């Protein structure tokens, strides 16, 4: 399975949690912005993590949404799991 | 006790979004019942519904709310926002716990629940959405409305099948009476998915007719069940004096009287308690039967239920004693939302002095001795009775008036 | 009219046994009824533990037709309603049906029956367009949880106000609160009120798995529910029902009824914050407690026992601890608090009524039930949670609280009547 990229993560976030017209995801440097500041709460992140697990066939730790508070951190954890395999 | 008045109204109905559109179409007698479009209903024994087709959720709600909300919650959030806007009330300007919400539900967010059941049984538990933990449940509309508008006062959720729309308004009136500045209340409902459809069909009251003009005929000799629909109405209730204090000078009407009763078990031989609900509501409103200008009947559309309602109305008002109408004939029955929509239509009738028609009923059962309004009728109205009945035996009756019977001018 | 309202009958079906006595024996002994799920194979689920009722509907006297048409939640409600009526000594024939009502709380209604029927009409999930021909007539009863109130009303013979109240996990407090109000305002003289939930089904387990609200401590089911403990990691789903006979005090006195408690205060608030999350400061629960106390004329030092919501999620137990401190001040540190969810799990809407039952039985017996499995308190949960072992204590006034999805927060004050019986 290929890597999770920012483009794909953005799509998943939009599907799982919706996107505001003013969403910061649309542009700018969001890689290191906290998900909370991007407007995604814990529930949105749980939904997103579940979708990633299914789509990428990875198993993420229960606390992945606590551990990874920015897109860069989340992508790193997901891509590590993809490399390591289940 | 001062009056509890309706200062805001939000309507989402098959007949229109907003009170104006709904009222104008209703007075034209234009039915919104048609073939089901929400899903392919061809295979089912009933294929007609009163659907809301003009509502585009993204036009009315923040995108963030869309993935986590069922169809009926989206409608309810829109109706609540309109009601609050209509009342020109800002929850942030009220006392900290000064505004709450009571809604009625019949079956929760059933369409959302259907999708998640499908995922669970087709693909496995890990596919079930995090939002399933609340998006389908009966309390979801009260919760989402309170969150969206920052309302932290007393709240509630009632489930009494199709009587719920009135019961929720009555419960909100209690909260206004014990000091809550403003309450959002009412019901918006609907389960437009195959799973919800089959569950409703199982109840045995849905018409199997294919002609929209023949499918829902309350009090008619050809009554053969009803047509389900989506929608309802939400209101803002306030204490009259409180409303005046914040500069409100007009309102839709007063919630003057209410009562709820329950029918004895099927087969017990005891009579229905619907008549008692009506009499208690009149007594609560301190209103005589002859002050009621029109009755918005429940109009179940099944002979046995129609007969019971007609008997109750005849017992209270006398044969042909009061105009009776069922505007639901244009929308179908909206589960818990139906009685709330009737209440909205009743308030509009009070304001306009016009009675909306019961459409398609051409042969009322003569023995019922009802003055059934089948064409729009002009009549100055000061008090209106709304009757609602829920499957299982729930009866509710509510009296709305133009002004408090004992208070001064407005 | 503002009449005083008392509890004169108690009926319980809970994990660990049917009947108020078995329920009290279990919770006052600090025993737990949580175990690996037996209703279905829990292997595919993250959390595989629940507190199931050992409940035999036929053995409890329900007829074959009642069993067929009622979801398990309704069966639990009707059986506990029978017990409370019997316990109250009311002669059903002497009740005025028009002055008698019913309020049943339930968070998720007939969810078990719904899912079972869904599996059939969808042919195991294969068909999106579910097959009408396989639908049973009572599917409609499952569709509308108002059927719970209807079943209990038929049992009681009630023809006054009847409703189901469904405010998520505060349903069991709110239903009783609403019934109290109907008597107090003069609409009814007798109400049978309480709550029931039977949520232990795959869809419920899956949705709580998805938000990681339930504990994954599958290797140790009997100690999995750990409210206020440092090692807590979610709640254990439960099921059950508790129902009460509520009466106008004068009505109870006239017939010389035993009075368990008077309900002297109730209030509910919303946090308007998040559908599943809680603000850490506990402000809205504290406000509900404050208003319930004010209505009851109760001061913090009057409260002898608090039955906590204590679900055992990280967030809830801190939220609630903050709410107690905020509403009771220093007194919060000196009031025994316990969570029976440590023993019978969290039965969603039903639990609020089961907790009221725990309060009145604590009053009757002079024993406060413990919080089981509490070995190492969370440093942020620094109140007296009565760990492990029940405590003898005279309880004249009790506070019970609940908190639920949607942001609902409720609080109720119960007071032992002056004198033994009324």
TrEMBL record, chain A:
**Top-rank lineage group of the source organism:** Bacteria
Q: Which UniProt keywords apply?
A: Phosphopantetheine, Phosphoprotein
One Pfam family for this entry, by name?
PP-binding
Entries under InterPro entries matching the protein? ACP-like_sf, PP-bd_ACP, Ppantetheine_attach_site
The Carrier domain extends over 3-82
Q: What is this protein called?
A: Actinorhodin polyketide synthase acyl carrier protein
Automatic annotation (TrEMBL), chain B:
Q: Name one GO biological process term.
A: fatty acid biosynthetic process
Q: Which UniProt keywords apply?
A: Acyltransferase, Transferase
Q: Which GO terms describe its molecular function?
A: 3-oxoacyl-[acyl-carrier-protein] synthase activity
* Boundaries of every Ketosynthase family 3 (KS3) domain copy: 1-402
Which family is it part of?
Answer: Belongs to the thiolase-like superfamily. Beta-ketoacyl-ACP synthases family.
Full protein name: Beta-ketoacyl synthase
UniProtKB/TrEMBL annotation, chain C:
For this protein, the record's PROSITE patterns field holds: KS3_1 (PS00606), KS3_2 (PS52004)
Question: What is the species listed in this Swiss-Prot or TrEMBL entry?
Answer: Streptomyces resistomycificus
Could you state one GO cellular component term attached to this entry? cytosol
Limits of the Ketosynthase family 3 (KS3) domain: 2-416
Member of which family? Belongs to the thiolase-like superfamily. Beta-ketoacyl-ACP synthases family.
Presence of the UniProt keyword Transferase in the record: yes
User: Which superkingdom does the taxonomy of this entry point to?
Assistant: Bacteria
Q: Which GO terms describe its biological process?
A: fatty acid elongation
Q: Which GO terms describe its molecular function?
A: 3-oxoacyl-[acyl-carrier-protein] synthase activity
What is this protein's record name?
Beta-ACP synthase
- SMART domains the record matches: PKS_KS (SM00825)
InterPro entries linked to this entry? Beta-ketoacyl_synthase, Ketoacyl_synth_AS, Ketoacyl_synth_C, Ketoacyl_synth_N, PKS_Beta-ketoAc_synthase_dom, Thiolase-like
* Entry keywords, A to Z: Acyltransferase, Transferase
Any matching Pfam family: Ketoacyl-synt_C
């Amino acid at each position: 399975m290929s890597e999770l990229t920012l483009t794909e993560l953005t799509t998943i976030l939009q599907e799982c949690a919706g996107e505001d017209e003013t969403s910061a995801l649309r542009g700018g440097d969001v890689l290191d912005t906290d998900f909370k500041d991007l407007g995604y709460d814990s529930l949105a992140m749980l939904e997103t993590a579940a979708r990633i697990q299914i789509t990428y066939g990875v198993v993420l730790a229960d606390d992945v949404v606590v551990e990874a508070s920015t897109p860069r951190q989340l992508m790193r954890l997901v891509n590590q799991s993809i490399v390591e395999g289940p | 006790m001062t009056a509890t008045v309706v200062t805001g109204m939000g309507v989402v109905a098959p007949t229109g979004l907003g009170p104006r559109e709904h009222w104008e179409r209703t007075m034209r007698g234009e039915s919104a019942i048609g073939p089901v479009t929400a899903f392919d209903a061809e295979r089912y024994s009933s294929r007609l519904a009163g659907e809301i087709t003009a509502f585009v959720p993204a036009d009315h709600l923040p995108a963030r709310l869309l993935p986590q909300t069922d169809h009926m919650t989206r409608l309810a959030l829109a109706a609540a926002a309109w009601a609050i806007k209509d009342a020109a009330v800002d929850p942030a300007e009220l006392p900290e716990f000064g505004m709450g919400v009571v809604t009625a539900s019949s079956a929760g967010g059933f369409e959302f629940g259907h999708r998640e059941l499908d995922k669970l049984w087709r693909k496995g538990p890990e596919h079930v959405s995090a939002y399933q933990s609340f998006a389908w449940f009966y309390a979801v509309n009260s919760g989402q409305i309170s969150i969206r508008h920052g309302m932290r006062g007393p709240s509630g959720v009632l489930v009494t099948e199709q009587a719920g729309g009135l019961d929720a308004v009555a419960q909100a009136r209690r909260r206004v009476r014990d000091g809550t500045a403003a309450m959002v209340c009412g019901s918006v409902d609907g389960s437009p998915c195959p799973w919800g459809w089959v569950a409703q069909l199982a109840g045995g009251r849905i018409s199997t007719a294919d002609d929209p003009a023949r499918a829902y005929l309350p009090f008619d000799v050809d009554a053969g069940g009803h047509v389900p629909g989506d929608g309802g109405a939400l209101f803002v209730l306030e204490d009259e004096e409180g409303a005046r204090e914040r500069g409100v000078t007009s309102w839709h009407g007063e919630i003057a009287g209410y009562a709820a009763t329950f029918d004895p078990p099927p087969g017990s031989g005891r009579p229905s308690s619907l008549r008692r609900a009506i009499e208690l509501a009149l007594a609560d409103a301190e209103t005589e039967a002859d002050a009621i200008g029109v009755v918005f009947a429940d109009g179940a559309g099944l002979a046995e239920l129609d007969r019971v309602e007609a008997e109750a109305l005849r017992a209270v008002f006398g044969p042909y004693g009061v105009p009776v109408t069922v505007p639901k004939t244009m929308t179908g029955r909206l589960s818990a939302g139906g009685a709330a929509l009737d209440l909205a239509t009743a308030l509009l009738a009070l304001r306009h002095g016009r009675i909306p028609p019961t459409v398609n009923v051409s042969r009322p059962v003569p023995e019922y001795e009802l003055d059934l309004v089948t064409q729009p009728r002009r009549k100055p109205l000061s008090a209106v009775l709304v009757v609602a009945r829920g499957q299982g035996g729930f009866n509710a009756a509510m009296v709305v008036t133009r002004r408090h019977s004992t208070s001064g001018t407005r | 009219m503002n009449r005083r309202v008392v509890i004169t009958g108690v009926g319980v079906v809970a994990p660990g046994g049917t009947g108020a006595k078995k329920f009290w024996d279990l919770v006052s002994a600090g025993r737990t009824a949580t175990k690996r799920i037996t209703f279905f194979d829990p292997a595919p689920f993250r959390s595989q533990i629940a507190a199931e009722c050992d409940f035999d509907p036929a053995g409890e006297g329900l007829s074959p037709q009642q069993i067929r048409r009622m979801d398990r939640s309704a069966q639990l409600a009707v059986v506990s309603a029978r017990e409370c009526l019997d316990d109250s000594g009311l002669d059903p024939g002497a009740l005025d049906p028009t002055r008698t009502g019913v309020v049943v709380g339930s968070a998720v209604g007939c969810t078990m029956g719904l899912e079972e029927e869904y599996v059939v009409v969808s042919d195991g999930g294969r068909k999106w367009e579910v097959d009408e021909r396989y639908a049973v007539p009572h599917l409609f009863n499952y569709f509308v949880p108002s059927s719970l109130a209807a079943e209990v009303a038929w049992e009681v013979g009630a023809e006054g106000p009847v409703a189901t109240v469904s405010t998520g996990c505060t349903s069991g407090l709110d239903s009783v609160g609403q019934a109290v109000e109907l008597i107090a305002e003069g609409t009814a003289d007798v109400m049978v009120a309480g709550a029931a939930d039977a949520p232990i089904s795959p869809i419920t387990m899956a949705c709580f798995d998805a938000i990681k609200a339930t504990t994954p401590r599958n290797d140790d089911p009997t100690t999995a529910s750990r409210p206020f403990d440092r090692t807590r990691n979610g709640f254990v789903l439960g099921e059950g029902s508790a129902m009460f006979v509520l009466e106008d005090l004068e009505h109870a006195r006239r017939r010389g009824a035993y009075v368990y408690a008077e309900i002297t205060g109730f209030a509910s608030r919303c946090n308007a914050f998040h559908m599943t999350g809680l603000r850490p400061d506990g402000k809205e629960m504290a406000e509900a407690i404050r208003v319930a106390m004010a209505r009851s004329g109760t001061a913090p030092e009057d409260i002898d026992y608090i039955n906590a919501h204590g679900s055992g999620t990280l967030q809830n137990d801190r939220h609630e601890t903050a709410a107690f401190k905020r509403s009771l001040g220093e007194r919060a540190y000196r009031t025994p608090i316990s969570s029976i969810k440590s023993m019978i799990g969290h039965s969603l809407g039903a639990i609020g009524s089961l907790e009221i039952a725990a309060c009145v039985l604590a009053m009757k017996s002079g024993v406060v039930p413990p919080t089981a499995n509490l070995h190492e308190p969370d440093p942020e949960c620094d109140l007296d949670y009565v760990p492990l072992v029940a405590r003898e204590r005279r309880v004249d006034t009790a506070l019970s609280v609940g908190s639920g999805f949607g942001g609902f927060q409720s609080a109720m004050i119960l007071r032992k009547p002056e004198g033994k019986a009324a």
